[in-house]
Structures are given as structure tokens and as C-alpha cells.
Write a structure and sequence with these properties.
This protein is of the alpha/beta class. It contains 14 helices and 17 strands. Strands 1, 2, 6, 7, 8, 9, 16 and 17 form an 8-stranded mixed β-sheet that branches. Strands 10, 11, 12, 13, 14 and 15 form a 6-stranded mixed β-sheet that branches. A 3-stranded antiparallel β-sheet has the order 3-5-4. It is elongated and about 70 Å long. The site of flavin-adenine dinucleotide (FAD) has 38 residues, from helix 1, strand 2, strand 3, strand 7 and strand 15. Its cofactor is FAD. Keywords: FAD, Flavoprotein, Oxidoreductase.
Length: 480
């Protein structure tokens, strides 16, 4: 349904995590605000978020977790090769604790705070997941007088004498267009992970990349901003979720909670490429974005298991603690069942053979037998002199039957393309703000990274979604 009014002080494009955080902030400031959401439901990928980053939050104070913000800033700038915006990252880090506190004041509960793998202890895990946060933000925004409509998308920003004058919107159900008047627009459309053309600008081998988003992050914010005169800024980074089962017949989220996926991607056993050769230390999966990058350096990638490792994972325990995965049990009790089921289904990503020679033949991995001999020798010596995998994860694969799982690369979000200033105002290519246009959340989060997403600072996009939504509203409030 079209909105009730034809004129607003602020229109927020996108009803996901950042848009709804901006909406509550705008409601708190008494700004006449409309949120338009192109989907039938609200929350976007915010519904799936595990946790948000914060420094010096109430919870960290309670737990005695202290982080030096300057050290953290230096660390992240180094990680980004100084491609991140230091002032913007600094402002975000310095306000991130109060962002967590603000969410808490709205009734959002946190189950824990700490690191994720080898990272800063910044991720505040939401009790009930992102969905619970969204469920708190929607009624609060409405209670504060914010109007929210769904199945309405933004089509074009209107400008007059260099200032925002309105927005063309479309009813997604009927296709009808309408013009609204507005003084300010916040773009909160979730980045571009679901736009294959834009992804191609950022990464090769698109057919092996699998989006785990809800499918609505199609880069609309960037396109609207570019059309209004914004700089085509660097395409930032893709948040790779490490390896993922390469299944071309089902959506990627189907495999996310499966133990076979975790065994193949998280257990650091043996990965080979299209030649059947190792190409990396498999414990690279300590950083899921590094793992994604490493997998992308090859044309095809397979995770190799044998019956002994499957039995061990099923009955004895894990070789390596599961890091960034929805499944983190002590054993993979369902692993053998899942393997049997997928083999019976004839799923193409899974191949079983009694001998290594047969597996190599079936998958055209000519060097697999010699790779395996070399790898088992290294395991016997207890040191990976080829790629430096930690000795604890050197697991021999001696006898058949063998299993090969073909791996693609999961993607949670893609950020970049728009440059903003410290108020989240969108900049033109001369570095000046486009008056009245702001970008927040994933649409602006390219400012925080270089070419690789910083899982060293876990929860950083969700924390940024909330921070930046509030930051843009604070700026709008000052200019009223
Ligand atoms: C499975 C998964 C898990 C994740 N876990 C984490 C995590 O634990 N921590 C973390 O920091 N990040 C995580 N992320 C990243 C996550 O994308 C962000 O943290 C967060 O959702 C970003 O908020 P956003 O508002 O920018 O985007 P979203 O929450 O996706 O919201 C964007 C909204 O804009 C709408 N929209 C798009 N185009 C238009 C248009 N033209 N008109 C109107 N509406 C439009 C979309 O439909 C969507 O509802 C995860 C992502 C996924 C997919």
C-alpha cells in the first residue's frame, strides 16, 4: 500500500537493520519520517544477524573486557592496508559501545560478548538472534510516529537546485509509480551481494559464489546514489563465509546448518584444487574471509575426507572447534546419515570412491594420489612444511573409502560503492556532500574496509548498521 502522506521530512529507503535503527532514532527526534521497504516483510538480512560489535559497552564493563580503541583502530587500518577511512572508523569505534547500550535500553537482550575465532572480543551476541532485535525496533518506531510501508521500492531520488526534493516510489504489487516530497533521504538498502553484475566487478568466478542473503540486497542504494551524482567509490569487500557446499540445485541456506558442510569447511582436514593439489593451509578457516579468498584463487576446490575421519567426527569428536558456523556441537552425530542421504540423492557435490585412484579418475583430479602421499608424509613428520597448517590439525587420510565434497564460497554481504563523510552524508567525486542524501548500513560500510572484510572485528556490519542509522539522523537533526 502507498504511504498515507505525500510529504515527509525524512524518507528511509530500506526497512532492514540500519533503516529501522534510523527510524527509531528519527522517531525519538520527532522527525516526520517514512520507511519504505521493497520486500513484503521487514528486517532484511538483519533478521539473520548473530551479533553486533561494540567497544566499552555495558556488557564488556560487567565482564571486565577492556579494549584499547586506538590499538584496535591501528589494527583495523593495517588490516585494510589503510583503505578504510580512519576518521569514520574512529567515530564508529568510539560510539559503538553506546550503540550496544542504546539497543539494550530498547529492550534488546544479549546472551554473551567475546571474540569469534582469533579476533577482538567485540561481538555482542543477540539473545534470539537478529530477528529478536528487528521485532523490538518495528513497534518502537511505530510508537514514535514513524510510518512504515512494505512492498514499496525507491526508484529515483528527485533533486532541485542541488538539494533533495523528493523520491519516486513504486508499488511492487501493482507496478504503479508515485512521487513523494522529502527534505532528506537515507539509503539503507543492504549493499549489493544479490546483484551478480556488481559482484563481478568485485570478484572473479561468480558461479562459485553463493549468496546466503535474503535475495533483496541488489545494490539499489548505490544505483540511486550514483544516479543522483554520488562518486562511484571503490567496491569495498565481500564478507565471505569461508567454504560452502557447491550445490547448484538448492539455495545455499539449506546447507548452512548441516554437519557435512561444517566437516568439509571447518575441520581443516584436506583441501585440493582441480589438479588434486593442496593450495593452502586448511586452517585458514580461522578467518572465514581469508578462507573465501584462498578458495577463490583456484578454479575448483574439494574437501577430502575418508571413512576413518567421518567415523571420528561422528563418534569421537571434532578435530577443530567450529568457528563461524551455526553448528558448533562436540561431535557431528548426523554426519554419516547426511552423507548416506546425499549419496542416495545423487547430489553432484558429493562423490564417494573406495580407492583414491578411482576418486581421482571420477573427478579428474590427476595429482590427488601423489598429493595424498605427500600430505600423509607431512602428517607423520608432524609439520606442514608446505603450507604451515598448525600441527594440531594434521590428520592423516590413509585408507578408503574416500569422500570428496565440492566447495564454493558463501557470501553474507557485499559492501562498498558509496563514499560518505563522518555524518554518513553521501559524497560526490569532489568530496562534497549531496545535500540531503545519506547512506547507512551495508550501503556505506565499504568505508570500514580495504579489499577484505574485517572479521578481525566481529559483528562490525551489524554494529555499523545501528551506529550509522543513528549517526545520519543526528546530522539531519542538527540541520533542521
Ligand atoms: C546469514 C547472515 C548472517 C549475518 N550475520 C551477521 C553478524 O552476525 N554480524 C554482522 O555484523 N553482520 C552480519 N551479517 C551482515 C548483515 O547483512 C548486516 O549486518 C545487516 O543486515 C546490515 O543491515 P542493512 O540495513 O545494511 O541491510 P539489511 O538488514 O539487509 O536491510 C536492507 C533492506 O533494504 C531493503 N531494500 C533494498 N532495496 C530497496 C529499495 N530499492 N527500496 C526499498 N527497500 C529496499 C531490503 O529489502 C532489506 O530489507 C549477516 C548477513 C547474513 C546474510
Amino acid at each position: 500500500m502507498f504511504p498515507k502522506n505525500s510529504a515527509y521530512n525524512l524518507i528511509i529507503v530500506g526497512g532492514g537493520l540500519s533503516g529501522l535503527a534510523a527510524a527509531v532514532s528519527a522517531g525519538e527526534q520527532g522527525i516526520k519520517t517514512l520507511v519504505i521497504e521493497k520486500g513484503r516483510t521487514l528486517g532484511g538480512d538483519g533478521n539473520y544477524v548473530e551479533g553486533a560489535m561494540g567497544v566499552d559497552s555495558f556488557l564488556q564493563k560487567e565482564k571486565g573486557i577492556k579494549i584499547d580503541p586506538t590499538k584496535l583502530l591501528q589494527d583495523e587500518l593495517n588490516y585494510s592496508h589503510y583503505e578504510a577511512s580512519a576518521p569514520h572508523l574512529r567515530k564508529y569505534i568510539s560510539q559503538s559501545g553506546s550503540v550496544i547500550d542504546w539497543l539494550h535500553s530498547l529492550g534488546v537482550e544479549f546472551s554473551k560478548v567475546g571474540p569469534q575465532g582469533k579476533s577482538w572480543p567485540t561481538i555482542h551476541t543477540f539473545a534470539g538472534g537478529g530477528h529478536a532485535v528487528i521485532a523490538k525496533l518495528i513497534p518502537q518506531a511505530k510508537a514514535l510516529g514513524v510510518e512504515i510501508v512494505t512492498s514499496i521500492s525507491a526508484q529515483k531520488i528527485l533533486q532541485h537546485n542541488g538539494h533533495v526534493s523528493g523520491l519516486v516510489i513504486k508499488n511492487e504489487a501493482t507496478g504503479q509509480l508515485r512521487e513523494l516530497t522529502a527534505n532528506n533521504i537515507i539509503l539503507a538498502t543492504g549493499g549489493y551481494v544479490d546483484n551478480p553484475d556488481l559482484i563481478k566487478k568485485r570478484a572473479p568466478a561468480t558461479e562459485r559464489l553463493l549468496s546466503v542473503s535474503d535475495g533483496k540486497s541488489t545494490g539499489d542504494g548505490m544505483k540511486l546514489a550514483w544516479q543522483a551524482g554520488a562518486e562511484h567509490y571503490q567496491m569495498g569487500a565481500i564478507q565471505y563465509g569461508g567454504g560452502a557446499i557447491l550445490d547448484k540445485t538448492r539455495p545455499p541456506f539449506v546447507h548452512m546448518p548441516e554437519q557435512l558442510a561444517a566437516a568439509a569447511t571447518q575441520e581443516a582436514i584436506l583441501w585440493v584444487n582441480e589438479q588434486g593439489e593442496r593450495f593452502v593451509n586448511e586452517d585458514v578457516n580461522d578467518n572465514m574471509c581469508h578462507a573465501g579468498s584462498a578458495l577463490l584463487t583456484q578454479s575448483r576446490t574439494f574437501s577430502i575426507l575418508n571413512q576413518e575421519t567421518v567415523d571420528h567426527l561422528t563418534n569421537v569428536g571434532l578435530y577443530k572447534e567450529v568457528g563461524n558456523s551455526p553448528v558448533s556441537p562436540e561431535k557431528f552425530e548426523h554426519l554419516q546419515e547426511e552423507i548416506t542421504r546425499d549419496l542416495q540423492n545423487g547430489d553432484k557435490y558429493l562423490t564417494k570412491s573406495d580407492t583414491l585412484a578411482e576418486l581421482a579418475e571420477k573427478l579428474n583430479l590427476p595429482n590427488l594420489p601423489q598429493t595424498m602421499r605427500r600430505y600423509n608424509d607431512l602428517v607423520a613428520k608432524g609439520t606442514d612444511t608446505d603450507f604451515g597448517k598448525a600441527p594440531a590439525y594434521m590428520t592423516a587420510l590413509k585408507d578408503g573409502p574416500y569422500y570428496a565434497v565440492e566447495l564454493g564460497i558463501g557470501m553474507a554481504c557485499a559492501i562498498g560503492g558509496i563514499r560518505v563523510d563522518n555524518n554518513n552524508a553521501v559524497l560526490n567525486s569532489y568530496g562534497y556532500p549531496l545535500t540531503g542524501i545519506y547512506a547507512v548500513g551495508n550501503d556505506a560500510a565499504g568505508m570500514l574496509v580495504g579489499d577484505t572484510y574485517a572479521v578481525t572485528l566481529p559483528g562490525s556490519t551489524a554494529g555499523y548498521a545501528v551506529f550509522s542509522g543513528r549517526n545520519a539522523v543526528q546530522s539531519i537533526t542538527k540541520t533542521r
